[in-house]
UniProtKB/TrEMBL annotation, chain A:
<dbReference type="InterPro" id="IPR038968">
    <property type="entry name" value="CSTPP1"/>
</dbReference>
<comment type="subunit">
    <text>Interacts with PCM1. Interacts with TTLL1, TPGS1, TPGS2 and LRRC49; the interactions link CSTPP1 to the complex TPGC. Binds to alpha-tubulin.</text>
</comment>
<comment type="function">
    <text>Regulator of the tubulin polyglutamylase complex (TPGC) that controls cytoskeletal organization, nuclear shape, and cilium disassembly by balancing microtubule and actin assembly. Regulates the assembly and stability of the TPGC and thereby modulates polyglutamylation of the microtubule, which antagonizes MAP4 binding.</text>
</comment>
<keyword id="KW-0493">Microtubule</keyword>
<dbReference type="GO" id="GO:0005874">
    <property type="term" value="C:microtubule"/>
</dbReference>
<feature type="region of interest" description="Disordered">
    <location>
        <begin position="287"/>
        <end position="331"/>
    </location>
</feature>
<keyword id="KW-0963">Cytoplasm</keyword>
<feature type="compositionally biased region" description="Acidic residues">
    <location>
        <begin position="318"/>
        <end position="331"/>
    </location>
</feature>
<dbReference type="GO" id="GO:0034451">
    <property type="term" value="C:centriolar satellite"/>
</dbReference>
<comment type="similarity">
    <text>Belongs to the CSTPP1 family.</text>
</comment>
<protein>
    <recommendedName>
        <fullName>Centriolar satellite-associated tubulin polyglutamylase complex regulator 1</fullName>
    </recommendedName>
</protein>
<keyword id="KW-0597">Phosphoprotein</keyword>
<keyword id="KW-0206">Cytoskeleton</keyword>
Length: 331, 680
């Protein structure tokens, strides 16, 4: 608790970094809104429940988008909630359109903006044929990257455009109205002959960005890993690589690995219980295959994959990239 | 010879006009097709058998001693006819030249008293050489090859003219025959009735077996009693009412198919006998009674007497038909109005959806509804204004409505958002109870959501909901249907409802509305497998929505829903408080049915934004409050830290001060004592 780094920051910055104020404000707001109901069972209990739900990640359910977007923890919780609620859809094997995924998102957050979903879909579909069907896992991982790192990605897009145009954004540029023209200048040399930008140059720019960015960004080491595998890459290629990278997913800590995506024994049990409650249902046949195949597939971390975020971060700070690559076979 | 029916006309017993003739014709220069040979009458005329090759007629009786002398005529081609003087005396006024293979009319000399002339069954092509027979009353040219009526202009006394079975194409050149009594033109090629208006004495006109396609131009025939038009191609008849004496009209075997085409017959008071057999009209089911109803003066129809019974039946049936026709006319008018209204609503809807560029033309005048067409469900509560609206419709005024409400037995159809207001109306219990299907078209779903509580109350038996062009775009919108009492069937028309394009929409509906145990969605039965799949897909969502929400959130969400329902209910007019509490119980019961789904609500976008706006104030306050708290806390923290920093120094100073004070024991004791005494 009394780690030196914590005391090193001045008050406001510390509070801001941990987003304490956001939660406090929201709690008080909720209290105000529902004071008739809450006053019945006590304010202390309310605060307990509130912060418990924040820890568990259920505080974002059915909340407005501005709240969900407010902190990285909220975003991660939302991703996780989405995964848990609609994992069954993915398990069923249905391929859905972008609009339908957006509908599902809206079930959890009524005013979720369409642009985010569209951007996520663009990552999956490589900016092509936006009406195509997407699988649940593809969409989910792309959505994770887009939603969690949305500000970061915007800056990356700007950098990419600059690089395409042949400018090096490391040089200090005073933004003027002419910067738009730079983008439109025909890209001679690299872009016309080869696609995308050079990976190493790209990485340098990103590294600078991560340093000075106040929003959350993926761990630079992992980004370097992604970029080191290729010579050149396009913007969407980069994003796809990000979304598929196990390490980044683990660094986020919201979703399990791709192989485990469809498995969540706790909720499966719940589901079976619910199904059993449907009148006149003969489900012995359906229940058994699930139960039998579960044990064989559970990797050692099944106990509580959902660890509080700071814990995961600490792990990340210590280890360099993900070392726990479990060997899963793809379903 | 002379057809029997004309006997009475000529007024004399002229049936056996036997003219015993021996006819010999010298026709050397005639082109002769006949097999007859013509000889000069040089032989004794006492062999009638030898000379008369064409003694075929039964009425033809040969007389002894009759013979004619045929002298060479002045014109080389025309034969000249002469009779013996005996003949002339015996039959001075009649002359029969039947079946004589005549190809032209012979010149008839010295027979100026002739009154009857019979040229039947010959091959005469032109009427000629009879101009001198100015006393002629009866002229029979039946069965010849005459192509044109001519050569009759001097026969001013002619009363009977028989031109049947010829090749006459046109009625003409009858101007001077003002005394004509009978005109027979049957079996010709006449296409029009014309040039007969001057025949004011004509009593019988026979135009059967011609090429007439219509009948008109009958004015002037003031004596006409019988008109025979059988076997033509007549499609309509006119001007018959201008014939004041017409009694018998034969129209058999023509092409008449409607009564309207012969409607002038109804106005003819003299008509007593008519035939229509062989026409298309006679095959119609309404034929007999329509004719009888419209022509009450008829005595015979199709040669059968018309009985009183038939007449009565006819009028009854006709009345019924008239009523039916009026009714169906009214129906079709209303249907047309309905169609127009729906079109108008559709156009407005498209405008609203920005599908078509907006043209500022829509004028909506009377916003009147068109009430039920069902004669059973009368609305006694309707005001007079609505009734007048209906009659206006019947008068064919084009009123552009903006919405339409229709109750058709068990279906309530609403078109256009204005129709939702009709739910406030006082529906009779019987009508409302019968309604099992409610159909919404061209209305925004968000607007429908707001009136669902009203629907629940007013139409408690509505089990089937249909939505078309209602802008259903999100799965979440189906949450709103959960507040209804019960829904058995749901039909979402793909047109105008993009939500149907989603793969999972049906499962979501089944999941969210599982407490309804729906039977059909879009016409297909709901199977057990569907229910299982729905639960499997979305069960976790329900679980999360109920058990993982913190308690206060549950309460607030459910409380919100209830509050909203109250608001809708209170908005309706004339609500008794008793009913309100009933609704309260109802909604509580509902919430109890499926608690784990109850939190899945749908707020229309407007309400949602409204709520967010309301919250903004609170948020601002909270922010300020927290900032104050934080300021306070940081100040305290700062002070704390400052204290932490300064404390060692302060402590040292305290100790130093104390030590300095106590250095000199004596003076310190004195000081303390002084302080104590000062205190007193």
């Amino acid at each position: 608790m009394l780690s030196p780094e914590r005391l090193a920051l001045p008050d406001y910055e510390y509070l801001a970094q941990r987003h304490v104020l956001t939660y406090m404000e929201d709690a008080v707001c909720q209290l105000l809104e529902n004071k008739e109901d809450i006053s019945q069972y006590g304010i202390a209990r309310f605060f307990t429940e509130y912060f418990n739900s924040v820890c568990q990640g259920t505080h974002i359910l059915f909340r407005e988008f501005s709240f969900i977007q407010a902190t990285p923890h909220n975003r991660a919780s939302f991703l996780r909630a989405f995964w848990r609620c609609f994992r069954t859809v993915g398990k069923n094997g249905d391929l859905l359109t972008m609009r339908e995924y957006h509908c599902l998102l809206q079930l959890l957050c009524p005013d979720f903006p369409l642009e985010l979903t569209q951007k996520a879909a663009r990552i999956v579909l490589m900016d092509d044929a936006m009406d195509c069907l997407m699988s649940f896992s593809d969409f989910l991982f792309a959505f994770q990257i887009q939603f969690y790192y949305s500000e970061f990605l915007e800056s990356v897009a700007a950098i990419y455009q600059d690089l395409l145009a042949g400018k090096n954004p490391n040089t200090v540029i005073v933004p003027t109205s002419s910067s738009g023209q730079h983008r439109q200048r025909p890209t001679v040399g690299e872009a016309s002959v080869l696609e995308g930008v050079e990976a190493s140059l790209f990485y340098q720019c990103l590294e600078n960005l991560c340093d000075r960015h106040k929003y959350s960004c993926p761990p630079p080491a992992l980004v370097k890993e992604v970029l080191s595998n290729v010579q050149r890459l396009t913007f969407y290629g980069f994003l796809v690589a990000l979304s598929k990278h196990h390490g980044i997913n683990q660094a986020l800590g919201a979703l399990p690995d791709k192989g485990d995506l469809m498995h969540d024994p706790a909720t499966d049990e719940e589901l079976e219980r619910l199904l059993a409650q449907i009148p006149g249902l003969v489900n012995s046949a359906t229940a058994n295959p699930e139960a039998s195949c579960l044990p064989s597939r559970t990797p050692p971390r099944v106990g509580s994959p959902w660890r509080p975020l700071h814990h995961a971060r600490k792990l990340d700070a210590e280890s360099d990239g993900s070392t726990e690559e479990t060997d899963e076979s793809e379903t | 010879m002379i057809p029997g029916k004309y006997r009475s006309v000529s007024g004399r017993a002229a049936n056996n006009v036997n003219c015993g003739l021996h006819l010999v014709i010298q026709t050397s220069s005639l082109p002769e097709k006949s097999k007859v040979e013509f000889k000069l009458n040089k032989e004794t005329p006492s062999f009638p058998g030898r000379l008369l090759q064409h003694d075929l007629e039964r009425n033809y009786s040969s007389r002894q001693g009759d013979h004619i002398h045929l002298a060479s005529s002045s014109m080389p081609s025309f034969p000249v006819l002469q009779r013996s003087s005996e003949e002339k005396i015996l039959y001075s006024d009649r002359l029969t030249l039947e079946r004589q293979k005549l190809t032209m009319c012979p010149i008839i000399d010295g027979e100026e008293h002739l009154r009857l002339l019979n040229f039947q069954h010959n091959f005469i092509t032109r009427i000629q050489n009879i101009s001198n027979l100015q006393r002629l009353i009866f002229l029979d040219l039946y069965d010849n090859q005459i192509e044109e009526i001519s050569g009759l202009s001097t026969l001013r006394s002619l009363r009977v003219l028989l031109l049947g079975k010829n090749r006459i194409k046109k009625i003409s050149n009858l101007e001077n025959l003002k005394s004509l009594d009978v005109l027979d033109l049957h079996g010709n090629q006449i296409t029009r009735i014309e040039n007969v208006s001057h025949l004011c004495d004509l009593r019988v006109l026979n135009l059967a077996r011609n090429l007439l396609s219509h009948v008109d131009n009958l004015n002037g025939l003031d004596s006409l009693t019988e008109l025979n038009l059988r076997h033509n191609q007549i499609t309509f008849v006119r001007d018959v009412d201008n014939l004041p004496c017409l009694q018998r009209l034969f129209l058999s075997f023509n092409n008449i198919s409607t009564f309207e085409s012969v409607c002038c017959l109804a106005d003819s008071s003299s008509l007593s006998d008519i035939t229509f057999d062989g026409n298309p009209i006679a095959q119609e089911s309404w034929y007999k009674h329509t004719i009888l109803q419209n022509m009450t003066q008829l005595r015979q129809l199709d040669m059968k007497r018309v009985t009183e019974e038939e007449r009565r039946m006819a009028s009854v049936v006709a009345k019924k038909e008239e009523e039916k026709r009026r009714e169906s006319h009214k129906q079709s008018l209303l249907k047309e109005k309905k169609r127009l209204t729906i079109n108008n609503v559709a156009r407005k809807w498209d405008l609203q959806q920005h599908r078509i560029p907006s043209i500022a033309t829509n004028q909506d005048r009377n916003v009147s509804d068109s009430p039920s067409q069902d004669p059973v469900s009368a609305f006694p509560e309707e005001t007079g204004s609505l009734d007048s609206g209906l009659t206006n419709a019947l008068q064919g005024l084009s009123v552009l409505d903006t919405h339409l409400v229709e109750v058709d037995g068990d279906t309530l159809s609403l078109y256009g958002s204005g129709a939702l207001e009709s739910l406030d109306r006082n529906w009779s219990v019987q009508t409302a109870g019968m309604v099992t299907t409610v159909s919404f078209t061209f209305i925004e779903f968000d607007e429908i959501v707001q009136v669902l509580p009203k629907l629940k109350i007013k139409f408690p038996n509505s089990l089937h909901l249909k939505f078309k062009e209602t802008n259903l775009v999100m799965l979440q919108q189906f949450n709103a249907l959960a507040q209804l009492r019960r829904v058995d069937q749901l039909t979402i028309d793909p047109q105008g409802n993009p939500v149907v394009n989603f793969t999972l929409w049906k499962y979501y509906v089944l999941f969210r509305l599982s407490h309804f145990s729906m039977q059909k969605i879009n016409g297909t039965e709901v199977t057990q497998n569907d229910m299982i799949m729905a639960e499997r897909l979305f069960g976790i969502l329900a679980h999360v929505a109920s058990s993982e929400l913190p308690q206060y959130r549950l309460i607030s969400i459910l409380g919100d829903a209830r509050k909203k329902q109250f608001r809708y209910l209170l908005e309706t007019k004339g609500k008794k408080p008793g009913l309100v509490s009933e609704e309260n119980n109802d909604s509580k019961k509902l919430a109890g049915e499926n608690t784990n789904r109850a939190t899945l609500n749908y707020t229309t976008r407007d309400f949602y934004n409204e709520r967010l706006e309301e919250i903004k104030e609170k948020k601002k306050f909270c922010k300020m409050y927290m900032e104050d708290l934080v300021k306070e806390a940081t100040e305290i923290n700062m002070k704390n830290e400052a204290l932490q920093k300064l404390w060692p120094q302060m402590f040292i100073e305290l100790v130093r001060d104390a030590v300095i004070e106590i250095r000199n024991k004596n003076s310190y004791m004195k000081l303390c004592l002084q302080q104590i005494t000062d205190q007193k």
